[in-house]
Automatic annotation (TrEMBL):
Domain ELP1 alpha-solenoid: 706-848
Descriptive protein name: Elongator complex protein 1
Keyword presence, Ribonucleoprotein: no
Principal location class: cytoplasm
Amino acid sequence: MRNLRNLRFGRWCRPDVTSVCWNPETNQVFCTIGPTEENSSIQLLRISDEDAFSPTTIAVWDAPSPNPDLPVDRIVSLQHLSGPGITCIVLEGGDIITVQETLSSAGDGDGVVEIVGSLDADITAAKWSPDEELLLVTTKSNVALFMSATFDPVAEVSLTAEDLKASKHVSVGWGKKETQFQGRGAKALRDPTIPEKVDEGLPSIFEDGAATISWRGDGAFVALNSVQDGSRRVVRVFSRKGELESASEPVDGLEGALSWRPSGNLIAGIQRLSERVDVVFFERNGLRHGQFTLRSPGRSLAPEQRIRLDWNSDSTVLAVTLEDCVQLWTSGNYHWYLKREIPIPHGICSLSWHPEKALRFAAASTSGVTFVEEIFHTARGSCLPPHDNGAVAVIDGDTVRLTPFRMANVPPPMSLFDVLAGSLVVDIAFGRHNAHFTVLHHRGVDVYEWPVVKGRSGKPKLVGSFPLADSGLIPLRIWCLSEYQYQFVCARGDSSFAHFTVTMDSNSLSPVDIGKPLVSTSAYEDVETLESYGQDTTGRLYKFSNGTSEDLFIQFPTHCPWFEVSRADEQLVAFGLSRSGHMYANSRLLSKNCTSFVVTPSHLIFTTSNHFIKFVHLVSAVAELEVPEDDPELDERCRSVERGSRLAVAIPTNMSVVLQMPRGNVETIFPRAMVVAGIRKLIDEKNYSRAFSYCRTQRVDMNILDEDVTETMYKDTKRSRHQTGLAPDSTTAAVPSASPPSPSKVNVVCDAILLGLQSRKASNLQNIITAHVCKSPPALDDGLLLVAELMQEDEKVAEKAVEHICFLVDVNRLYENALGLYNLDLALLVAQQSQRDPREYLPFIQSLHDLPELRRKFAIDDHLARRPKALSHLEALDAFDEFCAYTTRHALHQDALRIYRYDQARLRAITSLYAAHLETKCSYREAGLAYESLGNHAKATACYRAAGATCWQECLFTAQQQQSPPLSADAMADLAANLADGLREAKDYVAAATIHLEHLSSVETAIKCLCKGYHFAEAMRLAVQRSRHDLLDSAVDVGLAEALGSTTEFLADCKAQLLAQVPRIADLRRKAIEDPLAFYEGERPGGLDVPDDVSVAASSRMSTSASLFTRYTGKTGASAGTAGTGVSRATSKNRKREEKKRARGRKGTVYEEEYLVNSVRRLVERVAATKPEVQRLVFALVRRGMAERARAAEALMTDVVDACRTAVNDVFSSAPLHDAPAAGGGQQQQQQQQQGWRATGGDAVLQDFMEDQLKRQDPPPAIASFEQLTLLG
């Protein structure tokens, strides 16, 4: 649906121009003058289209014809080779010439001219490959010669009739007319694979014998179109090595034109028939693949004129060169559009597309060189509601295909309206409110009125026609200047431009002078006015005012061929798209990969090469424009679209966007950003009905009706009385302007509706029930009570109410709620609405009827599993034995305790049951407490003992209380000994020493326990206090020696671990910086499976009660395999294997550094925790006269602490050097996480590891310096 709009047009006039080519590096054109019959010399010129087409002469030399049969030599190929910087010229006479331009010869024509080779036979065609590595030359002796870039022969191929047998063409005729059913008779019996007429390859009556060469875009194959033996024209396809790949099937009337589409799928040629001229297409295997008929409205094609074909570099435009014009054709949805026809007088001899700028070309004629640059442009109407009818106009020759997508989604090439112009259409412009549009064609301007009939766009009517007085003018483009004025520009033959203004009020066409020439135009429209803006080649913007252009002092960083202007809070913002895909807002860069865009009153909408469509909310400050990230899952302003989609038009009134796919079909989508904005606008207009309708059709959460309306909707309940699906969470959390949701907003809305409907209860019964049901949580009881009231008033109305509430809520749930109301008639009425068999519920309801009231309530609550309420009914029945049994069966002890809290006798009975229950659940501490409260000290002692060492004090207390039978002295001693052993295992040495001292009377064992816990001061005090001085030598000194030995061994291991691990961490980080790819690609070659397990600190992974096997298998007691898990079993297995590798931190893996850092962290923390013990050890050694040992322990501890502090600075003070760029970069990792993408299997473990590396900001472990005793010096 895109048209071609002219961006640049110019002519350099000079007679006898014979060929032209581009230099893509400098965007300059090389052309040749001559040779002619009057002058055999050739002049090579360089022309720049940037500086008023100033030519520079490179070289001039004489080129007489070497063949007497050739009156004048002819240039067959002109190519500038960017690599060596030379220009190659191939002459028909057989000479191959190179021209080297030197700095000293610039402009004086003294370039170095060299004949690098000559062929004996005349050359018919020559063409360089796209990579400039091969030159293919064909001669009149039917020889194809492949030459390298140094003009050395690569292959020489003879063109013989045997080549025609290279391809055996078989057509099964699928989709053709002859394969379709034609009724009974002889035709139906004919072989459908054989067409009625088979082409024999008859030559065209205007056959000129010319040969044509065309390379595929990648240079892998080349096509040669030549005449074989004067009887048949054939297209041969060769490889780069000169091997024949295929020959085309016979085609009658095939001519010499040939062009291979750079994308490689089609080879275009010309077939001239008696009544028409077709462009036919071939595949690489030589088979036909479609065609279209050339047309030139307003004139007929001369039968004898030669036609040439040239594809542009991106395969989007096919240039058909006629005798005096160039036609530009594009295709879409299997239809070929004639987009432009550019007149070039005096015979076109050469056309060259720019190799890099796809829509720029230069055409040489006998009178000069014409420079043309086009852009793809969508002619769309206004996007201002309510006049945004989605108008899009498509040019096809002299026809304008017009479709208002708001009214009809007609796929191209069809359209809702076809407007026929007086000649070939050049450009289209829409007026204010889409009420008018103008068609610029070769003969003038036509103005059409586009009426709106009953809210729909009617058929356009011609209201004015303004012909051009000067036939030499070439129309280029037109734009809307104001509400009743249009302006267009035409090119003159002398490269100047003429501007004209069409005024609808006065029905006049007048020339104007706008001053500075502008190459791009755009219009801005709001509810009050329409303004027109232009842009020059530097990117500066101007405003059209009173026939002139005013400078806006807004400039894009580069020229943007596509731009639109918007106003937000009276601030002008210009959005521009450059050729490279850069999207700008004034001078700010918004996106680097934009492919198309459109501006609505609320949004900037654009598509990207990453196949997203994005929405930017318009604000007055350019710096505050927020472009969403590529995150369609989490941000409603970004949405995925089909690959290559482009914006055709946006329709804010319909909240839709029309996209066109690369193949040409269109698709209408309703992006959430536009839908939400449109719904809010409808709510502001109090159009709740339409807002609600859009919420339902577009599946928008009904919460938006509450979040945006707030109190206005509550006050206007008559207008907003709708059935909604409100929820307590916000649906606009992604929108910055959304306010925090109220936790009880659902109930507030429902209560407001109920209040508004109370006066009309009879006519709004269903709405009232719906309001009750929509509450959070649903007020089902209130709705059922309303039905129960109706049962007393009108049974028919009650039945309808029950049907409605059963439609809204699961009937089984309603049945249970009705039972919970103890209303058996209501429950029966609800049950009758279900799909249940009456035998399922009638006996149960009948049995309930026969029970007393309290027993009935108990049965109902027990049936509904409302155990606490059922228990309260048993208490009311005074059935204590049944009460106790029911409590035990359903574990309702806490509820039972609450019921009988003031009845001591029954409270003790319930407490005894609860204690037994706790004991069975292994809650021994609480069970012991319950037994102790009952005075059952024997049971309490057993429970406290089973609870472990933490309850040793409670256990010894109850053991010494009066029991039956009483506890013996030996049993008491065994109990105390077992508790002391448990405390020693738990490393609670002080508590163990207390038991040995006070309950076992073992002073020596108590002192040893204290020494084991480094409590030497208390041990020495206890020995003297109990008059056991001998224990100072036999117990305290021995304990000091054992503590010194274990401490020395621990500190030595820590020091060795630091010396091994800290340098290894530094080495790993250095390797990650030097070669991150090799560091993260996996295991290193030669790495040994040697885990770094020298750490003496306890591992946090090993300290949990769950086993490593459970962690790696992912199995728990409640998990079970299913058939569905088999699909991901391999992925799960890889993840488990990778988790094991990460946990081991094996040397050479990416997880080694993480393991080493965690190991150092644990070591530092363990050393810091050991400092108080070492201080107590050193102090005790000095007190016992072991100063040298104390000095050694203190020195070793000081060294280890200093080493730990150094390690903390080296390992933790600075972030790992590879966090930023490693493995694709931290920014990419964070972006992947924000996009919601998660790896699977082993890759997921690596991703978790990288995210941990990026996110981890744990503070480094803290360790203070070791305070030494001053007494030791």
